[in-house]
Design a protein that fits this description.
246 residues; five-stranded parallel β-sheet; 7 strands; globular; binds adenosine-5'-triphosphate; binds magnesium ion
Length: 246
């Protein structure tokens, strides 16, 4: 039992949820390490959605609504953290949802699909093919899903796969707390925010945007600017904290 008055209560509850999901075979052990890296950057960003990230979330909604065939690529961490929020985002954006794993086994694919479906997500199924220019099983995706997508939303992705999707000519939206990661740096649009804050914000923005407004906004997306703004936000916060000690 985590005491509710613990100063890091919220973070500890999330850790417990991910550890349970790992024991249930949904999250890979490596996924816990990825969460730790994310937590560290969230600390540096002040554990809040910055004004810059909020703008990126509205851009993400515009890109999803303007896309011809948008697909949300879900891994174990994202499913464990945000299954119910993904059902809402799917409804608001009309995007397809495909399970796509770095540490891929049939058992994990099945468990993650079942978890998402329990929370109301409509999960794509089919026979995967090696369509992404990567070695090993990370190349696998569904021909009617990520294979045919013009836009892929990849919460918590690895940099190589993000770059490979870009190489295939697809637009990529990444949700990643680390503005220095290759994922954030290679995405068309990096959303530098915690996934449980980002997904509902993108869904809410989808619900308030007309198709014409989405198309116009999607044309002007400047991903690099969000990287610079996140790095500046971290630098400003560190400086402030340093001054507070004087
Ligand atoms: P690369 O440089 O190839 O992108 P990486 O350093 O990002 O690699 P990964 O294994 O892809 O390493 O780590 C997962 C990424 O996901 C980390 O950058 C981390 O900041 C981010 N992350 C982890 N948990 C969350 C979360 N809950 N919300 C948002 N981002 C997260
Ligand atoms: Mg990454």
């Amino acid at each position: 039992m985590i005491p509710e008055d613990h100063p890091r209560y919220a973070a500890l509850v999330v850790r417990e949820r991910l550890a349970d999901a790992m024991r249930a075979g949904i999250v890979a052990p490596e996924g816990l390490i990825a969460q730790g890296r994310g937590e560290a950057f969230d600390y540096l960003l002040g554990e809040r959605t910055t004004a810059s990230a909020a703008r990126a979330e509205t851009d993400a909604a515009a890109m999803l609504l303007a896309a011809r065939r948008p697909v949300i690529s879900v891994n174990g961490n994202t499913a464990a953290l945000s299954a119910h929020q993904l059902a809402d985002l799917q409804e608001a954006s009309g995007a397809l949802v495909e399970v796509n794993l770095f540490h891929r086994t049939e058992e994990r694919m099945h468990k993650i699909t079942a978890l998402l479906e329990e929370h109301g997500v409509d999960v794509l199924s089919g026979v995967p093919e090696r369509l992404i220019p990567l070695s090993h099983d990370r190349a696998l995706c569904l021909p009617d899903g990520i294979g045919a997508a013009d836009l892929v939303l990849v919460p918590l992705e690895d940099g190589d796969r993000c770059a490979a999707l870009r190489q295939m000519g697809k637009a990529v939206i990444a949700v990643d707390l680390n503005p220095l990661s290759r994922t954030a740096q290679t995405a068309t649009l990096p959303v530098i925010d915690e996934v449980r804050r980002a997904v509902p914000a993108i869904a809410a923005a989808c619900r308030t945007m007309t198709p014409a407004a989405a198309r116009e906004r999607a044309c002007g997306v400047d991903g690099k600017r969000y990287l610079k703004e996140a790095i500046a936000a971290i630098a400003a916060r560190l400086e402030e904290m340093g001054h507070a000690l004087e």
